[in-house]
Amino acid sequence: xxxxxxxxxxxxxxxxxxxxxxxxxxxxxxxxxxxxxxxxxxxxxxxxxxxxxxxxxxxxxxxxxxxxxxxxxxxxxxxxxxxxxxxxxxxxxxxxxxxx
Length: 100
Fold this sequence. Notes:
By secondary structure, the protein is mostly beta strands. It has one domain (3-99). The chain is 0% helix and 66% strand. It has no helices and eight strands. Strand 7 and strand 8 form a beta hairpin. The chain is globular, with a radius of gyration of 13 Å. The model has no long low-confidence stretch (mean pLDDT 92).
């Protein structure tokens, strides 16, 4: 079962901004277009909270031919490193990040 951990809006520059809430992290997050993407396997977006890097995101196409973004996050929590993976998908004109 997937859980919504974030809600986002697309920015005029093609990125995303919103909020993520989990047990270990809660705060504003932005996805910036990766202007220095290297090759087709490089991330399409870089993920930040304030100026702190949190991860990366990759554009994907679903089986029903719709765009979504695979988001990979990593951040410290209580002396450990937390890794989260999820999908950012369009919903009612906005975007939701589902943890899976």
